[in-house]
Amino acid sequence: MLRLYKVCHRLSLLPLLPLCPSPPKPRRFASARTPSRRRKAPSRHAARLKSTMTSAASRLANLAPLNSVVAENVGGGSNDSVSSTNELFDEEEALGGNYKLPPPEIRDIVDAPPVPALSFSPQRDKILFLKRRALPPLEEIARPEEKLAGFRIDGKYNTRSRMSFYTGIGIHQLMPDGRLGPEKEVHGFPDGAKINFVTWSLDGRHLSFSVRVDEEGSDSTRLLFRSPAVYLNAVFDNFVWVDNSSLLVCTIPSSRGDPPTRPLVPSGPKIQSNEQKNVVQVRTFQDLLKDEYDEDLFDYYSTSQLVLASLHGTVKEIGRPAVYTSIDPSPDEKYILINSLHRPYSFIVPCGRFPRKVEVWRTDGQFVRELCDLPLAEDIPIAFNSVRKGMRFINWREDKPSTLYWAETQDDGDAKVEVSPRDIIYSQPAEPLEGEQPEILHKLDLRYGGISWYDDSLALVYESWYKTRRTRTWVISPGSKDASPRILFDRSSEDVYSDPGSPMTRRTSTGTYVIAKIKKQNDDNTYILLNGTGATPEGNIPFLDLFDINTGSKERIWESDKDKYYETVVALMSDQNEGDLHLDQLKILTSKESKTENTQYYIQIWPDKKPCQITTFPHPYPQLASLKKEMIRYHRKDGVQLTATLYLPPGYDPSKDGSLPCLVWSYPGEFKTKDAAGQVRGSPNEFPGIGATSALLWLARRFAILSGPTIPIIGEGDEEANDRYVEQLVESAEAAVEEVIRRGVAHPSKIAVGGHSYGAFMTANLLAHAPHLFCCGIARSGAYNRTLTPFGFQNEDRTLWEATNTYIEISPFMSANKIKKPILLIHGEEDNNPGTLTLQSDRFFNALKGHGALCRLVILPYESHGYAARESIMHVLWETDRWLQKYCVPNSSKVNAELNECKDEVGKGLQNSESKVAATSGGGGPELAEHEYEGFHSVPRSLLW
């Protein structure tokens, strides 16, 4: 059952009460998404995705949205590695069956308890500490699930499958001076309760959340719905605060019976037709509907009855059951924006492209009007910046009581069509007067990317275009027809050095977020706060600028420590009062970390700006606290500057330890210019976060780790990046390998390469086309045959028939006969990522085996594109460590023998020096003789020791 609870508290925190659940139907287990709900944190638009707030949010995973907390995916990152001892573990090192455990030095790091997530009340006077657990057991991931229309659904709880959760809630009072009061823990959950979708009421006095349970709670809790027959449906949206005392909830219709059963005998053949000769090109989506039975099953699980529930106990059904995907109350609490899906469904695209109806209702459920009914969108072109026809991004204006705005394409959604304007932004009241037409707010020649609102005098509009990497920010005055829009920023999205930052937003009394305007004493100018990553050639130095919106002048009022620490502005904390904010009363939340100190959070209050620390999270892996980290710079032979982060194990002494085995872990990226590709991203002072499958785990096994060496694939002007993919990939890898050898930290015959997803694609290509660089490879969840993704992949939007040679040449499957170095392939059996079907690894392994390659394929039952279960992750680590110990760190006598075989080719001086390196470091690679120095002329021999 999925039950919905509420916590009631005033200044002193009162015990919890409950809310609504969901029922035990056919069994499944769940995967969560961020629920779309009112009073959410400010929207992040496409043109602002590179902003400080976004980069901070992605990096600081333990900070939840400031007014709502949602489940996060457990485990399953897309980047990282594995471990073990030399051969197989003893009996006690097995998890059961054939699942193995990595050595204790890796296992202990992965099993360390995670720090809690944080959520601040709307009034910024309380903080939730949301407790989390370590990795889930395989039995949870293995629960049955329905794969429908691009989703995976847990039928038992009627929610997304594989859903993470919180295990407990602690509440702290945040004192005016920034100190934290003692924690008061919320009690009354049933044993083993799984908490999700935590949200504050608008006034911060109540807290709602769902709890997945199989039994009723204790007598210290009660459910919002008194009836035991009312359950939460969380397949799409789940519940939202309408006002301070009522919630609109998606529930399972009371009339719903048992799920449909698949007929023993089909009613007929499965038929798809294109007799109208429509051009329909789609990428390789997975988990799609397959037949009429799947359509019925999708309707069964996704159909909701909307219920308006009061905290006082009243319950009212509103509207008819439908597939509601989002419910969004207007700021004045009078209307609800309702999105729903309907038939006809599709067997070739996920539900995001199904026919969609958008309506306006009053809060009591009375229908007001239909905004649009968009048809099935199977024919969206694959070119980047192509979109659906009709109204898009329909939202409430955050600065108005009940005014809607949206964008409409003027190019039929096809990015290849040249037209001006390309997008038009419209606005209209929820209930327009008879004959009142939508107002045109702004016309754009690039693709619309969102709006930040303040009021009728100020809004910022964002547009961008991928092909040229151009991004623009416009200043408009929505309430003035006389004020001409003007461009505030016009730049390349790739040029991180020129990024001015993103405007900080403040919460209003209605729960929306608007641009924060700042007042300076004795100054009537209009200022906003720009929060930036501060990319520089020395690394990121985040900043907060006071920016005059009219003159463009800036004043830096806060900046990160450049020497030892990496600090970011996470959120504005002084927005609980109405009106403009005064600079001398500014209050912000910042994070602070260093190479050896994990992230902590601070409150800073103007004018003295003295940081007050509010968290004291313990170091997550103290055994690696003294690791060495350095951001290094080097150049590839075409002059492009490359960067990487070099990690060395604790206590490493180059004079005593010599060179080390090295693991290179990376992921390529596309660029339009060499200058942008060469810019430095990241900070040398960031704390080295180590995920459950991170390559950094091998620091505990005395490896050097070259993390994220930039692999830019550049297509300048009219050139497409992938036309020179292999050439640029090899040049980037050669430069990285040359640099770690030059520094003396990596043994030239003991350098392994690995990656996940597109990084796995990179790994296979490097072993095929640069066998002289690496002794072995680890490729996880990759795609290796691009003819199986014929309508585009990654950032390639040409089809197989438009760029046949490119598709063939960059597919490592086509070069399987060239791969002579050991390669470990790992893939989740239930991979749901477009393009990376498990079939990719199956076929690639067979191709390798057919040419006698040294290879191994590991398929992880029940795992998706990222790996989640503890058994799976531990086994991945065991497999990878076994591979590295066997093929990257062999005994030195064999290396010396193979070096002697290379004597005539590499010269006596090189052979002698290499013997010294092998003796000091304890070994080299078994594949040295055949390829190790072939074609490696870009490395001066003097750098090889």
Automatic annotation (TrEMBL):
Residues 25-46 have a biased composition (Basic residues). Keywords: Chloroplast, Hydrolase, Plastid, Protease, Serine protease, Transit peptide. It is found in: Plastid, Chloroplast stroma. Residues 729-887 form the Peptidase S9 prolyl oligopeptidase catalytic domain. The keyword Disulfide bond does not apply. Residues 24-46 are annotated as: Disordered. Gene3D superfamilies: alpha/beta hydrolase. One of its GO terms (cellular component) is chloroplast stroma. GO terms for molecular function: serine-type endopeptidase activity. Belongs to the peptidase S9D family. Serine-type protease active in vitro against the LHCII N-terminal. Cleaves its substrate on the carboxy-side of Glu residues. This is Probable glutamyl endopeptidase, chloroplastic.
